Amino acid sequence: MLIQSIVKNGIWLISLGLFASLSFSEESKDAVSGYHPDLTASEDSEQRSPDEYSDGLTLSSGPSLFEGREQLSLADEHTFSSLLIDRLEYSNGREENYASYKALAWVGKDYQKIWFKSEGEYKNSLQDTENQVLYGYATSAYWDILFGARYDTYQSRSDKGWLALGLQGLAPYWFEVDSSLFVDQHGLMLLSLNSCSE
Fold first, then answer.
1. Domain boundaries of the chain, sorted by first residue
2. In sequence order, which residues have a C-beta less than 8 Å from that of residue 126 and are 6 or more positions away?
3. Is the pLDDT assigned to residue 144 strictly greater than 90?
4. Can you give the pLDDT at residue 54?
5. Is the pLDDT of residue 122 over 70?
6. What are the start and end residues of every segment in region (Disordered) (predicted)?
């Protein structure tokens, strides 16, 4: 009973508000806002140039600017890239050669990046590898949400593909956190949590 009364009164108030807003004429809007077409036309014709006090310098011309190029660009409009090789080892033994690598790369802008993560081992031939391609979106100043695909190759068994969802960033006290959830085609889930501090 109470809910029905609230709904009826709410509908009545919304209808009243719509009626009042529709009946508010254009002339009364102009009177309230102080708009007068004759005054506006004269003010527009007498406006000063924004470059009046700049001695002829503008955003696209000047002694220290290149001609014919767009000059003004904001910080988040630039594309950046990074390559971090965390581990790169090689050992040449009498019976076998061993190598190991772990690398991370990204390319993109401040808020959106494409991430590449790869690690693997080599013992006379390529052994197990883990490769990820992820799309990352910055949710705050220090945290990114990632999603994409992971593909693992194995020497002793068949290769495997995963869907990936992750969260990575910088926690308080300078802890780098990298957490990922992987799901394969059979519904098997793998959770990976990594943290380090320098």
1. 2-43, 79-197
2. 120, 153, 155
3. yes
4. 73
5. yes
6. 35-62
- Banded model confidence at residue 15, pLDDT cuts 50, 70, 90: low
pLDDT at 42: 52
pTM flag (> 0.70): no
Strands 97-108 and 112-123 turn out to be antiparallel
Rounded Cα distance, 153 and 147, in Å = 20
Neighbours of 191 (CB within 10 A): 8
Q: Which residues of 139-174 are buried (b: 16+ CB within 10 A; e: fewer)?
A: eeeeebbbebebebeeeeeeebebebebebbeeeee
- C-alpha angle with apex 138: 137 to 143, nearest 5 degrees? 125
Which class does domain 79-197 fall in? mainly beta
Q: Give the 3-state secondary structure of residue 56.
A: coil
Which residues have C-beta within 8 Å of that of residue 133, sequence separation ≥ 6? 114, 115, 116, 148, 149
The count of residues in the chain is 198
Q: What is the pLDDT, as a whole number, of residue 156?
A: 84
